[in-house]
Specification:
The complex is a heterodimer. Chain A is mainly beta. Chain A is built from no helices and 11 strands. Classes of the chains: A mainly beta, B mainly beta.
């Protein structure tokens, strides 16, 4: 079993829809990251969370430490949101980052 | 502030050769991490350097090595290349080691091994 699991693996939605991507982990962590990778390969850090909720524009990230679960939400989705969204957790034992496999999101106009 | 830069951006090598990739972190950043990304495996951690010392290492064979210089620039070396080493190699910098330091990624070096 992978230490970090994301769901769904692939998601296709229509422009304007509310999007939720989930991340579950099985290890002790000190922080969780959500990142975005566009087709060209560049990776951008979206959020870094250790508790609660963060919001940036149309993006919202939440984390439940007790349940070892985080969600990334996109409101009013747009085709430019199409990308791979990756969850990564930083282990509390050695600070190493463990990555999820990513969720490929396609937003159709 | 200039972002993380990686050179070269694309590289084609043949099996058995060796390759050196370079990463220049954001000015003032002292931590550099390297990752390998393949379609089947996703992103995998290679190693992390801070102040010229390797602080963390992933589960890769000894053919993969790295170093960091006093100006925080880092190089990664892969010897005796295998077909399976074809991947996107990403480096990321952060201002310090530790839990809450955000990582900034470079554009990556795409290595193809023939």
């Amino acid at each position: 079993k992978n230490e970090v699991e994301q769901s769904p693996q692939n998601l296709t939605a229509q422009e304007g829809e509310f999007i939720t991507i989930n991340c579950s982990y099985s290890v002790g962590i000190s922080a969780l990251h959500w990142l975005q990778q566009h087709p060209g390969g560049g990776i951008v850090s979206l959020f870094m969370l250790s508790s609660g909720k963060k919001k940036h524009g149309r993006l919202i990230a939440t984390i439940n430490i007790q349940e070892k679960h985080s969600s990334l939400h996109i409101t009013a989705s747009h085709p430019r949101d199409s990308a791979v969204y990756i969850c990564a957790v930083r282990l509390d034992s050695n600070y190493q980052l463990i990555w999820g496999a990513g969720t490929k999101l396609i937003i159709k106009p | 502030k200039a972002g993380v830069t990686q050179t070269p951006r694309y590289l084609i090598k043949t099996r058995g050769q060796q390759v050196t990739l370079s990463c220049s972190p954001i000015s003032g950043h002292r931590s550099v991490s390297w990752y390998q990304q393949t379609p089947g495996q996703g992103l995998q951690f290679l190693f992390e350097y801070f102040s010229e010392t390797q602080r963390n290492k992933g589960n890769f064979p000894g053919r993969f090595s790295g170093r960091q210089f006093s100006n925080s620039r880092s190089e990664m070396n892969v010897s005796t290349l295998e077909l399976g080493d074809s991947a996107l190699y990403l480096c990321a910098s952060s201002s310090a080691l530790g839990v809450y330091n955000e990582q900034f990624f470079g554009p990556g070096t795409r290595l193809t091994v023939l």
